[in-house]
Amino acid sequence: MKRTYTKKQIDYLRTGYAKMGIPELTRAFNKKFKMNKTNGAIKCAISNRKITCGRTKGELNKGRFKILIINAPLQIKFLKKNYPLYSRKELVARFNKRFNTTLTDQQVISFINRHNIRSGRTGRFEKCHVPANKGVKGIHLSPTTEFKKGHTPANTRPLGSERVDNKDGYIHIKIEEANPYTKAQTRFKQKHVVLWERKHGPVPKGFAVIFKNSDRKNCVDENLELVSRAELARLNQLKYSEAHPESKPVLLTLAKLKTKIFSLQNKNSNSAAEKQRHNK
Prior knowledge:
Elements: H1 7-17, H2 22-33, H3 39-48, H4 59-70, H5 72-82, H6 88-99, H7 105-114, E1 162-164, E2 171-175, E3 187-190, H8 191-200, E4 207-211, E5 224-228, H9 229-237, H10 248-279
Antiparallel strand pairs: 1-2, 2-3, 4-5
Helix pairs in contact: 1-2, 9-10
């Protein structure tokens, strides 16, 4: 439906456009006639009726800055006094009211920056600052809807629940063990490690539990093997997980043998070096 404007409204647009830009004219028009027109609607109304402002390009902004230049000493004094007291938005509103201008937030802020006017605020809470929520601890704002003490979330999983990690494919199981990261009384832990520890005790430091057949979902005890981190590194070098199932036992033995040889060679080398330093 095409929206029409009264003669009074058209005359107001014609008169106002000579002195104001579209955003200011829109605000003034809506305030005058108690309407809610957008900038685009006012621009279309002006364009359709071939209303011109009679200004050259940029003349309106030049006029605005001219106001700033003429009253600069008084305005600088006003801004220096009020900038520490008010936010930028409120400062601009007070500035326009005081000097009868229609400057935008950015124009006033640019004027402030050019004259090196500072608010003195750091953006941090100053020493002895009183928080806005002081004294509200323990206050129940909505006792009828808040969680009660001992409440169990609806998505809580019971002990023994399992899930598969999407990143590494390991099965995780929920156990009754303190979580070292969240301090919760339960946690999810790799299932194969849990099963191995139940039978053999805690995994020693520097060791890991691997799958003999590389199937991370086969967590039976016969498929689990305890290896040192050094042996695990050798297995990775030998591409153990990609090897044929029949060759895996050989590669496992080979990795342990190589690790042992390297350990003995390193031990002998250190002993010889120590002996040589002692002789000197």
